[in-house]
Amino acid sequence: MSQPGKVLLHAEKVTKVYPGTVALDAVDFNIYEGKVNVLIGENGAGKSTLMKILAGVEEATSGRLILQGKEIAPRSPREAAALGIGIIYQELNLFPNLNVAENIFMAHEYTLGGVVVDHRSQENRARDLLAQLEQPINPRTLVADLRIGQQQIVEIAKAMALDARILIMDEPTSALSTTEVEVLFRVIRELKAQGVSIVYISHKLEELMQIGDYVTVLRDGELVAEAPMHTVNLSWIVANMVGRDANRQYEPQAHEIGEILLSVRNLTLPRPSGSGFVLEDISFDLHTGEILGFYGLMGSGRTEVFECLMGLLPYTAGTITLDGKVTRSPHIRERIEQGLMLIPEDRQREGLVQTMSVHNNMIIASLQRYLAGMMLSRNKERNAVESYIKELSIKVSNPDNLISSLSGGNQQKVVVGKALLTAPRVLLMDEPTRGIDVGAKQEIFDIVVQLAQQGLGIIFVSTELKEVMAIADRVIVMSKGRITREFTRAEATEQALVEASAIGHGVTQTPETIGA
Amino acid sequence: MMQQTETPSPALGAVPSAKSSTFGMSVSKVLLRLRAFIALFLIFGFFAIINDSFLSSSNLIILTKQVAINAILGIGMTYVILAGGIDLSVGSIVGLAGMIAGALINEGLILELFGITVYFNVMIVILLTLVVGMLIGLVNGIIITRFNVAPFIATLGMLYVARGLALLSNSGATYPNLIGSPALGNTGFPELGAGTFLELPYSIWIMLVLTIIAIFLSQKTPFGRQVYAIGGNERAAQLSGVRVKRVKTLTYVISGFCAAMVGLIISSQLVSAHPATGDTFELNAIAAVVLGGTSLAGGRGTILGTLIGAFVIGVLRNGMVLEGLSSFWQIVITGVVIILAVIIDQLQARLQQRDV
What we know:
The structure holds two protein chains of two kinds. Chain A is of the alpha/beta class. Helix content of chain A is about 30%, strand content about 25%. Chain A has 18 helices and 24 strands. By secondary structure, chain B is mainly α. Chain B has 15 helices and four strands. In chain B, helix 4 packs antiparallel against helix 12 (about 245-270), helix 5 (about 90-105) packs parallel to helix 7 (about 150-170) and helix 9 (about 200-220) crosses helix 10. Chain B is globular, with a radius of gyration of 24 Å. In chain B, about 45% of the residues are buried. The interface of A and B includes residues 364 and 365 of A.
């Protein structure tokens, strides 16, 4: 462990520019042979982009990849696979309508004479791979019939079947149970022993400390630090991830926090499968003029809390009280009328209707307000739309332009405008700053604070620590469907939040990993 | 000298060319947007020139009467398609509606429990028939929204069910001679098909009135706006508080109403109801909608476009008949026109994307 490893692949000054943003800015990255190379950073730091470049999914704007002294430029996953680079994606990329073996050998089938698929050999090899992963899944099972965790195992087997020299794992454990994670770690160690180099991406810091040999930290598309894992500790990682100046750059203007506005008690949502809970015993209060931050990893239940509040998920127990009145209606329409409004996580899929204009997107949730008799009044609509375009400073030359002609930040402001036009009391913002540039983020923050000053209660969910800490008056941390801790603004530190978000994640913290 | 020739000339050269290119772009965009109308204009002009009898008022009325059938079906279909669905059952509803009207006029409503037969006034017959059409649409909507059956499958099933019921209603036979009897007080049904107002047949007026109502409904009411939103992004519409299931169901009710109206018009024009009437009409209606520029994916399109689409098909057929073209060739050419229209649609979509 002490002598420096041999670099198998070296990425040199890799830059990737997307229209509007620089995802990677001259990043150097080393993959050490036969080691687990951990890559960490906040959302949007550029980890996935870098991996997509290595795997041939994306092409770098500039920079070089050097594999064992030879420059390579894979232009497709197929070319990357031929070079020995395999990748397990964050999102599952399986065909649910095909069976396990067919998925594992998709596009590199074993054949008889190059024509007929040799199902028997494929299934035998698949069985071996799954046995290695300690998952006795029948290779003939349809992927659709597998649990998400098992599907992730199949995804891992698929990458192993390539006999890759470099195996990239982008959040491979997000859907795995604790025992499955342990099996995966054992497999990783075996692969290492066979000389396979692993690139490992995860948000679960304890997990990284346990399995990693080298750690590389990215922040805002730039390389921040690289070090052997045994020389660093958790606070070093957190400090590098979030930036050395842990000071808040954003200081929200004062806003008065008033009476209790929304009160949630013992909210419980069982899993659809019947075993266990998505949400368990969630209780909290929200006051007028308060910005309440929710922090937690993917799958911690943040989004589900919102969906219960909006009547989208059938919670089995618990009460939601708004303004002293218990809300019972299971319909989102009535919830909106009562004063709750959601700004959904996925702007494109849930927030906007791409085929409609800016104008129509903004008024769709509040049409009833612009009626003159039976007809919609164009004047009333236009007045409402234009007042919010001005108030939110949405940059659009004509509100009748298609929504898709706007930048991400302005599209998000349209979603906010749509929500405000329903005259909400409580605004639920699920990752409102995702995928928008820094300037637009700042504007969204300003809007949130203004709304709080006007007496709205705001719940702000983000996976980005810095954001939650910058804007929230109070932070609630969730993990595995439960509220694990609650912090006031003064108490909230990055480390404490990260630790609270990891409670219940199985991988125990050994003294070395958290010791300073 | 030097200054005069060198400095101003690049600027002068650049400005007009830039202008003309944006101007050219916008002209081509306008042309594309009005493509259905232009196509109609060209086809219309073509037949007007090559055939003397095409522009005669009697031919134009015959043509428009034919168009009305397809246009009324197309109006209902437009709502369904705008909301992201499809309604294959309208042709069968046309047949069933005619049979219901025929049965009510010729045989009355037999109430076995009381041992009596009730004959209704023609207006009530019409009303009852329209209600049945809407109820079938309601069933379509409920199957689709409450039981999550794909619209294609649900309405395909209804295509069979409604046709089967139409055949069952008189054991596959026609209800002839729907003139009613003065003694029963149910005369006047043929008037719907034969009557005129300001020299235009009622069916043309019905088409015009329904078109105006439909345009109003789609542009000026929350319902219309919500139909577009659902077709564009159902999840976003739901999260905005749109009652997705209710709105979608309503589009099928409208479609059922339109189909029943067509069933009434046809049986009245023929003064008889035949159970096979309306076979494959659903395809003509879909063709009119698509020709009118409505996207089968939902969210994009207009009622006016559908009206123009129905006229394109109608003028094409009428002109080809006048020219004595084989009816088999008419079918081929109609198909080619539909495919061409969709290809142009795709080109437009690409052009728009590039522009943005």
